[in-house]
Amino acid sequence: MPNGNVVYRADGEFNGKAICALLESFGIPAWTSQESYGRTMGLTVGTLGEVKIYVDEKNVMSAKDILAAYDRGELETPGDESDNPDEEAQP
Predict the structure, then answer these.
(1) What's the CATH code of the domain at 36?
(2) Measured between alpha carbons, how far apart are the two ends of the chain, in Å?
(3) For the chain, how many structural domains are there in total?
């Protein structure tokens, strides 16, 4: 088991790495851990697909605050509203 504290649980490696990148963009080192069978089989749901995101003890509160803001949609930037990236912005 990795040293550190679990601050988030994501579905699959891709989502786990995205959450790590988010935390790292705020200067918080983060890393992931997933059951080896789930990773080998490419599972993204359930217990074997779950990816745990860890941070050092000193960063737990900051990470949880950032992740709570993320879950509330407060980290979106203007222009993120479109679900279609090919759609051009209308004046």
Answers:
(1) 3.30.70.1530
(2) 52
(3) 1
Give me the domain span that covers residue 56: 5-71
Residue 32 and residue 51 in contact, taking contact as beta carbons nearer than 8 Å: yes
Percent helix / strand / coil, the chain, rounded to 5? 45, 20, 35
pTM: 0.72
What number of residues does the chain have? 91
Task: Confirm whether 50 is domain-assigned.
Answer: yes
Q: Using an 8 Å Cβ cutoff, are 23 and 63 in contact?
A: yes
Mean pLDDT by 10 residues, the chain (91 residues): 83 88 96 65 59 94 95 80 56 52
